[in-house]
Amino acid sequence: MDVAREIREFRAEAWRYLTGSARSRWRQKALLREIEPHHLIDIGIDPFTMKPLTSPPALRPATEADLESIQRIYADHVAHGLASFEETPPGIEEMRSRFRTLKNQSFPYIVAEREGRVLGYSYAGPYRTRSAYRFTIENSVYVDRQCAGQGIGRALLTELIVLCEKGSWRQMIAIIGNSGNNASIALHESLGFRLVGVLREVGFKHDQWVDTVLMQRALGLNR
């Protein structure tokens, strides 16, 4: 059995239960009771109460006071992961410059926190700089790797989409480093993104060739 796939399915099932309507929660609870208790604990659910073992993160606009945590989270992904094609973690001043550039252009930039600790962050930015691309944006989501699997990335991306749909933008692009990043691909797909292409072996990082996955979602369909 593919254990990683099994865990992803459990996590997806848990999220649908935790965020669904009262009626759907009743159905999901019945399904969750079929999962072994130790697996429920693994995905953050109390097997007796069927409630989260940890409180959900609070989402709010990012401020410059968050940049130390944001830089730490991103630096870890740069140094150890393939989601970003940067190879040298940027310092706090560079992150501050990037943050100010996005905020000055009124792009959404949010963090998820619990008990005062920043667990992850998400923002939108230009997809391309040429003017004809001005109604298309790119999303970025990074979660503290110690908090993976707790639904933080989903919460951040869901809120980011909501905020972006209030703006003038019409398309959101996800550029996902590494075609093996199944968790990120599945997350985007579950929130309405569709796969539009894969650029094969366009990056070389950590002594391996890395693909780029392109996904796209329309914004503001009800306007």
The backbone outline, from C-alpha atoms, is globular
Kindly report the average pLDDT value: 86
Approximate helicity band: 25-40%
What is the CATH homology-level superfamily of the largest domain? Gcn5-related N-acetyltransferase (GNAT)
CATH fold label of the largest domain: Aminopeptidase
Level-2 CATH architecture of the largest domain: 3-Layer(aba) Sandwich
What does this structure look like?
- The chain is an alpha+beta fold.
- The chain folds into two domains: 1-53, no CATH class; 55-218, Aminopeptidase, CATH 3.40.630.30.
- The protein contains seven helices and seven strands.
- The chain has helices at 3-19, 22-32, 37-42, 67-80, 92-104, 152-164, 182-190; strands spanning 58-61, 109-114, 117-126, 136-143, 171-177, 194-205, 208-218.
- The chain has a seven-stranded mixed beta sheet with strand order 1-2-3-4-5-7-6, sandwiched between helices.
- The mean pLDDT is 86.
- This is N-acetyltransferase.
